Fold GntR family transcriptional regulator.
Amino acid sequence: MRDDGAGDGLTRADRARRVANVLRGQVLRGAFADGVLPDERALVAEFGTSRNTVREALGLLRDEGLVARRRGVGTVVVGRAYQHPLGELSGLAEVLQRHGTVVNEVREARTVRPPLTVARRLGLADGTPAVYLERLRRVDGRPLSLDCTYLIPEVGEPLLARGRETLERHDVFGLIERVAGAPLGRAEVSVQAVVADPATCAVLAMPEGGAVLAVERLTRLADGRPADLEFIHLRGDRLTLHATLDRAARHVADLPVT
Amino acid sequence: MRDDGAGDGLTRADRARRVANVLRGQVLRGAFADGVLPDERALVAEFGTSRNTVREALGLLRDEGLVARRRGVGTVVVGRAYQHPLGELSGLAEVLQRHGTVVNEVREARTVRPPLTVARRLGLADGTPAVYLERLRRVDGRPLSLDCTYLIPEVGEPLLARGRETLERHDVFGLIERVAGAPLGRAEVSVQAVVADPATCAVLAMPEGGAVLAVERLTRLADGRPADLEFIHLRGDRLTLHATLDRAARHVADLPVT
């Protein structure tokens, strides 16, 4: 079952893609405890494929920014992908502080006239202002995400009044509940893969043309009123979303899409 | 609160990014019923920004493959993003057949020697074969995803015996339950944004350098044994994942990551 010259009709690119599929998951799960991938010979043996195919697969992962070649060491894992559980509604910092030191760099925090569609989704009457926050998240100093948040005034104004330092040190979810005294209810989340635009790449210190998870999250107060509409861009090479799903739940109604 | 020349220290790229954030969600949610975006003048009014900023924002969405400029019409939504609920463990086809005609093009279906890590995750002893399926999903004729699946022999062999036509017309989840008679239990899913490699771009008929959602899903039988390990690449411009999350669930233990 070796693929090289086996006449199976596959191109080397197809074979490399399959090898990369398997290795990508291992890299992201932190399966290589010492951060070093097995050498080419070991990978050839493991995948039953040619050395050229293994090299091409490693090249794909290098292009994705997941691994790098280090002289005298071999192929090493670059950085680290954090794993964010999708099944819980947590602020990113609440989850990431389990992994490292989270700092929110506040790029903007002020009252704005929200775009009409944002106002509508937040249930604001035309002309009502909103509070806009833009924060760059760093974990252990390295940029992870750019979060753009629109808040209803009732929730956002008390946060602004606390000043930037509070916003830098705390998650918005926690602040809403503690400072604004407004318990949160449900959130509707959508997740999409996009190539980051140059401005976002620059802010996130990632190479141009890299992929991000674009997350849009509308969070409601416990009484059902929308309070917080966020547009989050997460570096694709630094964060993986996780969930455990149950087959028994397959017949639940479609989730509401607003 | 106009942003142009307001001396707010923002670059036009920053402003364009914010406008694009809001429009992106509208495009993906199908908020423009006729598939045409408001004209530049309307967008300038809605976002309280300059015409150049609006143009740059539309350019970002064009680069992402979400919209196109059509002469005499304006900016139109390209294709359509399907919305896949993350909260249920469904085969993709089970969800997509609500939206259009789903065809699975079977690119490969055979017994292979699985890579060592795949064997381990499937709980297979060294040297045990696995069944490998590779399918290209099309919805209404247009490629949506490339699914590479490793199955334990007990589940995969009965599927192979049914022949390609069965695999083309049916979801693997349904087939496992009906043909192999093995009820499914839970699945562990991870989702990541990556730039698709050239081979994957070619298969999915997407422009080189485009983003995909890379989903890895390990599905277990109802008795807990792993049965099905999938590597799915979904076109970022054609699929959005959705979930509704509850703040009350925030303190649940971290999801198991294998």
